[in-house]
Every structure is written in C-alpha cells, then in structure tokens.
Design a protein that fits this description.
Strand 5 (75-78) and strand 6 (81-84) form a beta hairpin. It is built from 13 helices and twelve strands. It has helices at residues 47-59, 94-106, 124-134, 143-148, 155-163, 189-199, 212-226, 228-246, 264-276, 293-299, 305-308, 316-326, 332-339; strands at 4-13, 20-26, 34-35, 66-70, 75-78, 81-84, 88-92, 115-120, 175-176, 187-188, 281-282, 288-289. The radius of gyration is 25 Å and the shape is elongated. Residues 334-340 have low confidence and may be disordered. By secondary structure, the chain is of the alpha/beta class. It folds into two domains: 4-134; 143-339, no CATH class. The chain starts with a strand and ends with a helix.
Amino acid sequence: MSEVRILNGSLEDDDETDQIIIRGVIDQNTLKYVRLDWYQREQGFSNAHINQIMAAYIAGNKIEDITIGMRGQRVRNAKDTYSLLDRCYCINGGQRLFAAAAAIKERPDLKIRLGAKVYTNTTEKFENELFCRMGTTQVKISPNILLRNKKKESRAAAALLSICNDANFALKGRIAWDQRKSRQELLGGYTFARVVGALHAHKGGALRSNSVYDLLRGMDALVERIGEDSVKGNVIRFFDGIDKCWSIRQLSGMRGEPRPHLRPPFLLTLAKLFSAYSDFWDGTERNDFYFLDKYVRRLKGFTLTEYVTPRAKVPLDALYEILRKKLQLNPIFEQEVAAE
C-alpha cells in the first residue's frame, strides 16, 4: 500500500490553525509516497542547496521538520506508528524531501531521520495558503510563485497567466512564474505584474504597490472595473510597441545578450509615463491603451544602454524626462494650463 508512516508519533494542538496535528518521524521507506502538488516550486530546487541538505543527511545532522497535508481522515495507529491512508502532499519542505530521496539513492544504507508535522483532512486551497505563509523561513518563496498560486481565486492572477500564453503577446512563454528564471525566460512574473500595474496606475488603487498581495488586490479591482479583455489588450499592445522599437520576439535568452529595454527600471518608468498621458489612451475613461506608430518612430533606435544599464546610473526621474522628450510630450503642468 502507498501509505505514509509516521514513527514515534503523537497528537498535538497546532498553534497556527487550532487543529490537532500528528507529529513524528517519517518512515524513510515511505518518503516516496509524499507528493508535491502544483503550488510547489516546480523548477526552483537549487542544486547547490540540495547538495548541502544531502551532505547534512549523510553527516547525520538534524534537519528541520517538513509539513504534510493529508487529503482525507483515514489514519491507523498502532504502537505510536501512524499510518496515513489517504494521499499526502508536502506543503513545506519540498527541497528537504527531494534531498532525502536523493541521499538514499546515493547511499542505500543511509538511515535518515526526517521529522514531519501532519495536517489531516486538508484541501488544495488550505495547503496552498499554508505553503505561501510558511515559505519565508528556508529558501524564501519567490513573489512569482505567490502571484501564480492565486490563479484559482484571483481574476487578475488568472488573466496575467493567460496573457503569457497568448500568441499575440511578445513575451509568450517567456515570463517566469517559478522560483528562478530559466534561460529562455526573460522577465519575472512579479516584475511583469508590477509593469501591468504601473501602466494602469491612473485607474487608482494599489496598482503601484510593491507588496505582492496589495498589488494583486489592486489588479483585481482593475479587472473588475475595466474588464479582463481591456487589461489583456493593453498589456499586449504595450509590449508589442516595445518589440517594434527594440525587438523582443527575436531575443535568444543567451547570457550576455543586451536587452536593456527589458530591465525593470526602464519598463516601470515607461509604463508610468504612458499611464500619466492621455495621449496613449482612448476615451475619457482612459481604459484602452494604444502605442501609435508616431510614438514608435520617435523611440525606435533610441540607445538605451547609456541610460538603463547598471553602469549608467541615470536617476529614474531623469529617465522619465528623457523619454518624455523623445516622445515629444508636453509636461503635464503645461497641458493643465492649456486646458484652463
């Protein structure tokens, strides 16, 4: 049977959730039955960190307990051994679990003592929320994952992920939603979300926030206000305009490839500029963004390496003014005076 066994187990009150939990040591012969679900770091296991944990197992050092959720209530207890009879998922400690399996494979005679805290009758939603709360102690969970893992309850998170699979999107399949970026991924999901927020900052709310969940709440309000299709269309047109000016679709992703136009400070500054000027928006409500050809011509060929590389050190407010002048936009205060 594919049951997970907890040795020397006992029942405890859990301070975090007020639930009764099982705490003990996992029978190493049953480690292989603990699953990892979608909310985990799918590509985020660092080889260096895994090797460090394996070395700790082999040296017999103490390793922090992992947290398990069992999606059901079937438990059998015999002489302080708790057999978990329903499917078990690792909520926190995926790298410790993976490293334990790797250490045993390398040293079949190795005896591993890996403790576990077990919640019973869990759901995917409960596990995901607990995973996001707990993932700040060992290797801090990337904000890319925190955003991605809200896709089932946040319209904005689902919309962002949907855009990334749209054939019209210049960065289709090249946004990182995991712990680390692969070579082909050019922009992190959290940075992408911040750029989308900055582009729509004129709509109010927390769209400029650096807090993952505050930003997401602001974006949910945005989707509710102007509609998912408008948000998607605006984002696609924004990056399509950048592609026309400096090229995105042709990027290889190879190390050393110059791509200053995808550096976060530049993207955020350009999005902030576009948000501020009605010239880029259709209608009085300014819901629909357009990057007209005349603006593409004004930016095309503009050398960014002098302004947005680490060596350039141009202040962002100065970069904002440089871009404004390249786009031939009047200062906002001049527009306000003219309107009076």
